[in-house]
Amino acid sequence: MEPYEIALYGSLSCVGALIGTPLSGYLLDRIGRKYSSLLGGLPFLISWSIIANFNQVEAVLFSQFLAGIGGASFVISPVFSSEICQDSIRGTVTAGSMIFYGLGILFSYVMIACLPYYTLIHILVTMTALYMLCVVFLKDSPVYLLTVGKEEEAAKSIAFYRSVDPDTKEVLDELSNMKRLINFENAGTTEEEKLKPEIVHSGSKEKISPIKYLCKTE
Fold it and tell me: Mind telling me which residue stretches traverse the membrane in this protein (predicted)?
C-alpha cells in the first residue's frame, strides 16, 4: 500500500462513523431497536466478507469505511439493552456492553497472535453472522413498541424478557409504569413544573407549595 492509502486505511473507519453514529439515532426511532441492531451488524458482515474474498486495496479501504458505519452498533446496543432489562440490573447490563466491547478487542488481538490471517477473518465473519441470527429471535424493546402504539406487543416483549406470561401482574405493572413515563415525557412538562409541583386542596381548590403543605400537616 502507498503511504496515502495507509493513511486512508486508518481514517476511513472514522469517516464511516461520522455517518453511522447520527444515522443510528434516526433508525432507533424509525424502525425500532431490534431492526436497528440487525442493520448495525450488516456493515460488519459485509466488511469482513470483502476482506475474506478480495485482496485489492480499494476493496480493503471500502471495508474499513463500512466497518466505521457499523460503529452505529455501539450506540444502538446500550439503548436496546437498557430498555429490555429490569431496573435492578439496568446499570450492570448497560455497562457490560462497554466492558465486553473492550474484551472483544483484547480477544481479537489474542486471535491475531495465534491464528492464521484468513482463519481469523472467517471466524469474525461467522461471529457476526451468529450475532445477527440471535437478534432475529429477540423481541423489540417494549419502550419502543409503546411509543408506536403497540401495547399488546409491548406486553409480550416484557413477558419474553422476564420469562413469564403476558397477563401476569409483574408484566402489567411494568407496562403501566412505562406508559406513565412515556406519557409524562410526551406531555412536555417544563423543568420548573417538575421541580415545583403544586398540591390542590380538595375542598377549597387552593394551590399551595409542598413546603407549606408539610408545615400545615405537622
Answer: 6-28, 35-54, 60-80, 92-112, 118-138
- Calpha distance 209→102 (Å, rounded): 49
Q: Please write the tens of the pLDDT for every residue from 161-203.
A: 998 998 888 888 888 888 888 887 777 554 445 444 444 444 4
User: 108 and 23 in one domain?
Assistant: yes
pTM score, whole prediction: 0.76
State the residue range of the domain holding 166. 139-187
Tell me the one-letter amino acid at 162. Answer: R
CA–CA distances in Å: residue 157 to residues 64, 102, 144: 35, 29, 10
Which residues 6+ apart lie within 8 Å of 34 measured at CB?
A: 80, 135, 138, 139, 140, 141
CA-wise closest residue to 155 among 178, 175, 177, 181:
175
- Domain shared by 183 and 97, yes or no: no
